[in-house]
Amino acid sequence: MASPRTVFTVAAVQTEPVFGAVEANLAALDHHLADVGADLIVLPELCSTGYSFQDRAEALELAETFPEGPLSQRLLAWSARTGGMLVAGFAEREGEQVYNAAAVVAAGEPLGTYRKLHLFGFERECYDRSEGPLRVFEHEGLRVGVMICFDWMFPEAARTLALQGADVIAHPSNLVLPGWCQQAMLVRALENRVYTLTANRTGTEHRPPRPELRFTGLSRIAGPDGKALADAAEQDAAVLSASVDTTVSRCKTIASGNDVFAERRQHDYRGWAP
Questions:
Q1: Is residue 158 part of a domain?
Q2: Residue 274 resides in a domain
Q3: Which structural domain range is residue 45 located in?
Q4: Could you read off the pLDDT of 58-110 as tens digits, one per residue?
Q5: Active-site hit among 47, 126, 149, 181
Q6: What Å distances lie between residue 37 and 40, 42, 81, 240, 264, CA to CA?
Q7: Is residue 252 flagged as an active site residue?
Q8: How many domains, in total, are found in the chain?
Q9: Any residues with CB less than 8 A from the CB of 231 and at least 6 apart, and which?
Q10: CATH code for the domain of 205
């Protein structure tokens, strides 16, 4: 009997979508993904629509249902070609509700969505509040947790996914703060002993009354040792790739012999947690 597979190829794709130009943005993604055959591919937050919705009504207008919408259908086709998993950020519509979400598909089949827990700035005016949950999706032995952009600021999000067994945290993003997240994700990877894939976007958007936003690029794949495995530049589209080994991500013991999960002092932490 063959041993379970432990090594996988992962990729993070950095793009520059044009606001509202869904078909053009999907065509650009077709181009970026044409030669990518990774077991896991992560695309940015809101990768088919752009970010700066002027109001909730506009978000609802450009949102799509999963898995029937245009991005969802494209994801299913791409994943059928690669046989792997894809995670991509999009505006998800459910009836008259709209969420900042990530679609997850694998080998041509829909697996589900994750809806962003921590809304950033004016996102709170455009989207309904998600009640979660944080989820881990598995395909062919690779366990992938999903969080979106500003979720990075809350270490509980990454820790929850790691405790659920994630080997990799897929992190679709539209980052505008000055490199804070890219640095923090090295720590999220280290403290949880997992791999992280932050797929950010580049370029600018200015759609009054929203402020002008400059997206920081610098997409990053980080390893369980807290080191960057692959980095993109601040500008320009890019495809980053790396290998991940689940024997590493599932070992929570460091060189000292300490198990960083088993030795958590949960009872003592309750003294300060609200």
A1: yes
A2: no
A3: 7-269
A4: 999 999 999 999 999 999 999 999 999 999 999 999 999 999 999 999 999 99
A5: 149
A6: 8, 12, 8, 12, 38
A7: no
A8: 1
A9: 218, 219, 220, 221, 240
A10: 3.60.110.10
Q: What is the pTM of this model?
A: 0.96
Say whether 116 is catalytic: yes
Point out the catalytic residue in the list 16, 45, 123, 205. 45
Question: What would the 3-class secondary structure string for the chain be?
Answer: CCCCCCEEEEEEEEECCCCCCHHHHHHHHHHHHCCCCCCEEECCCCCCCCCCCCCHHHHHHHCECCCCCHHHHHHHHHHHHHCCEEEEEEEEEECCEEEEEEEEEECCEEEEEEECCCCCCCHHHHCCCCCCCCCEEEECCEEEEECCHHHHHCHHHHHHHHHCCCCEEEEECCCCCCCHHHHHHHHHHHHHCCEEEEECECCEECCCCCCCEECCCCCEEECCCCCEEEECCCCCCEEEEEEEEHHHHCCCECCCCCECCCCCCHHHHCCCCC
Active site residue 92: no
**pLDDT score of 204:** 98
Check the CA dihedral 15-20-24-26 and report its sign: positive
Question: Among the options 58, 64, 92, 116, which is catalytic?
Answer: 116
Which residue shows structure tokens 């290998």?
243
